[in-house]
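Archive entry. Fields below.
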Amino acid sequence: MTSVLIVDDELFIVELYRDILQLRGYKVMGTAFDGEEALRKYNNSDDKPDVIIMDHRMPVMNGVDATREIIRLNPMQKVIFVSADVLVEKEARDAGAVDFLPKPFRMDDLIEKMEKISRFH
Amino acid sequence: MTESHPTQGIERLSAVFMDLLSHDILNNNQAVLSYLELVLANPDLNAKARDYAEKAISHVRTSTVLVEHAKNLMAARTAGPNSFRPIDLMRSVMLAIKELPRFFPAKQIRVRMVQGPTDAYVLGGALADDLVLNAFIDMVRTDPGDEVAIDVRIIKSEHGSKMCWSLVLSDPNTVLQPGMKSEEFSALLSQDNSKMVKMAGFLFAGIAAHLLGGEFDAKELAAGTGQGGEFALTLVKAGKP
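PREDICTED_STRUCTURE:
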């Protein structure tokens, strides 16, 4: 079962992803509301998620910085970046994100990207 | 000490507000879209409810594209004319035609290319692409029927002293209600707020086309009849990049 860490500062978005991903058979192993919390949870967890769904604009630490730090710790970690700001795509990919989805997106598109990643994992 | 002009403060405030507003709207649209997808995934959903959910998704997509257009407009204003790179108008039209069904899943849309040269390049970058898509979306939105037929022409034109290309869309079934014609938007932009205008897409088209040195014109096919519509998007001609 593919495991996921969800990072987004909006509670209703975190709940939305969690509900739909669980319905679709994914294991949501954690959630974080800013980049620093995501980094802390990632560091403290022995069991790393297969995929991290990462928002960009968050308090304390943004998604690009958090992605960069996580990839520095584990270059093999797969991060799918999701943001309402399409201009941040290049920065996100440069930081190490394997894919980018502009909000709003169809959940089927996210699932398809996650399936692709888990097939090669 | 350099004092900033009061309008700079207002511009900055508008940009911050626009940024926050668009971010929140897109996040909310994400939630609405995804929950509607969940509803549609139910195989027992009856046809009427499915139709309502699909219509709601269409409106979410339209509101998203309006936000994107407004963001691109602000970005283009900030970046200035040097950022207006040439785009292939025909390619932009083809992309818009491909995108249209996503916005109107319940409508049958037929687009007929009446006149379309392959060397029509205009200045405008992403904002010009937005304008083309916006023109098609508004054309379909103003046609109340379930079957929409749009004729497309790309013709040489002039605006002021500038050589231009005009993208002209026409639909015999378009209904331009009061508040949707270009002259009413022009009045609004020249500080006359006395008349109510309709559809933010038309306002965006007017402002964005003006910013790119061109114009957007929405009029009836036969003046005074209220029936049929013709939208002309005129943009400054560019050389092939």
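CURATOR_NOTE: Chain B has two domains: 6-79, 82-236.
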